[in-house]
C-alpha cells in the first residue's frame, strides 16, 4: 500500500493553535526555526503526515514522535513498519505513506533550470534530454529530476548518493531505474497532478508495486 497526500500550503496556518496542537513539541520547534514560506511549507507537510497516518493506521497514537536517521531520512520512532516521505515546493506540500520504504518529490516547473541536468544528472540522461525537441525537453527534465530525487529519498542515503551515479529511463513507462550502488528492487511512478505547473514523482522499494493513490486536500 502506498498513498500520496497533497495540500496547498496556503490552506494551513502555522500559527493556528488547533493545528499546532496536532504536532509534537519537537516537531514544532524544528518548524518554528524556519521563516516565511519555508516555515509554512514544513508545517503543511507535517500536518499531512499526521493526517495520512491517522487514515491508514488509526490505532497509532498522535502526535507522532519523529527522529532522523543517519542519512537524514525522518522516521517514526515507535512505528518501524510505517514508512513516509515529505516534500514541498512553492505552493504545494506532499506526503507519501507506505508499508515499504518510500520517497516522494514535487517540483515547480520553472524555465531555465536545465543546467542542473548538465551538472548533476547521469551522462545518459543528459544525452537523452539533448535529443528532444525544445518543447519536450523541459517536461522530461522535471520528470527525471523528481524521479531521481524520490529514489534518493527512498534509500535514505541523502547526499551520499550522487544523482549522476544512477540513471532513470523515461523513454517508456513505467520509468526504469539502473543503480549499481543500491541493492533491492524499486518501482517508480509519475502520478498525474492537477496543477500543470508542477511535477510529482514517487519511488517505492518494492518490485511491481501498485500505482500510489493520490489524494488532494484543502
Task: Write up what this structure looks like.
This protein is of the alpha+beta class and 218 residues long. It contains six helices and eleven strands. It has helices at 17-20, 25-32, 36-56, 115-120, 123-131, 134-155, and strands at residues 2-8, 66-68, 74-76, 83-89, 92-98, 102-108, 167-169, 176-178, 187-189, 198-204, 213-216. The protein has a four-stranded mixed beta sheet with strand order 4-5-1-11, with helices on one face. Strands 6-10-9 form a three-stranded antiparallel beta sheet, with helices on one face. A two-stranded antiparallel ribbon has the order 2-3. Strand 9 and strand 10 form a beta hairpin. The longest helix has 22 residues, at 134-155. The radius of gyration is 17 Å and the shape is globular. The mean pLDDT is 95.
Record field, number of beta strands: 11
Show unreliable segments: none
Main pleated-sheet profile: 4 strands, mixed
Q: Structural class, from secondary structure content?
A: alpha+beta
Shape: globular
Distance between the terminal alpha carbons, to the nearest Å?
23 Å
Based on CA atoms alone, the radius of gyration comes out at: 17 Å
Q: Hey, roughly how much beta strand do the residues contain?
A: 15-25%
Count of DSSP helices? 6
Strand order of the largest sheet: 4-5-1-11
Average pLDDT number? 95
SSE order in H/E notation? EHHHEEEEEHHHEEEEE
Nutshell version of this structure?
The protein is α+β, with helices and mostly antiparallel strands. The protein is built from 6 helices and 11 strands. The chain is 32% helix and 25% strand.
Amino acid at each position: 500500500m502506498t498513498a500520496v497526500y497533497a495540500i496547498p500550503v496556503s490552506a494551513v496556518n502555522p500559527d493556528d493553535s488547533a493545528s499546532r496542537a496536532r504536532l509534537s513539541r519537537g516537531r514544532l520547534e524544528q518548524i518554528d526555526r524556519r521563516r516565511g514560506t519555508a516555515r509554512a511549507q514544513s508545517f503543511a507537510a507535517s500536518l499531512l503526515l499526521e493526517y495520512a497516518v491517522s487514515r491508514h493506521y488509526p490505532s497509532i497514537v498522535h502526535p507522532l514522535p519523529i527522529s532522523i536517521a543517519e542519512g537524514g531520512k525522518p522516521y517514526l520512532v515507535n512505528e518501524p513498519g510505517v514508512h513516509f516521505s515529505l516534500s514541498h515546493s512553492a505552493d504545494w506540500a506532499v506526503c507519501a505513506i507506505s508499508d515499504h520504504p518510500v520517497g516522494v518529490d514535487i517540483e515547480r516547473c520553472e524555465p531555465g533550470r536545465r543546467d542542473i541536468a548538465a551538472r548533476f544528472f547521469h551522462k545518459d540522461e543528459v544525452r537523452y534530454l539533448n535529443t528532444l525537441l525544445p518543447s519536450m525537453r523541459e517536461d522530461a527534465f522535471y520528470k527525471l529530476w523528481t524521479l531521481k530525487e524520490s529514489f534518493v529519498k527512498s534509500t535514505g542515503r541523502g547526499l551520499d548518493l550522487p544523482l549522476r551515479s544512477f540513471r532513470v529511463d523515461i523513454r517508456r513507462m513505467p520509468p526504469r531505474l539502473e543503480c549499481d550502488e543500491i541493492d533491492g528492487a524499486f518501482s517508480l511512478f509519475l502520478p498525474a497532478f492537477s496543477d500543470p505547473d508542477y511535477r510529482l514523482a514517487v519511488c517505492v522499494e518494492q518490485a511491481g508495486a501498485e500505482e500510489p493513490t493520490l489524494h488532494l486536500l484543502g
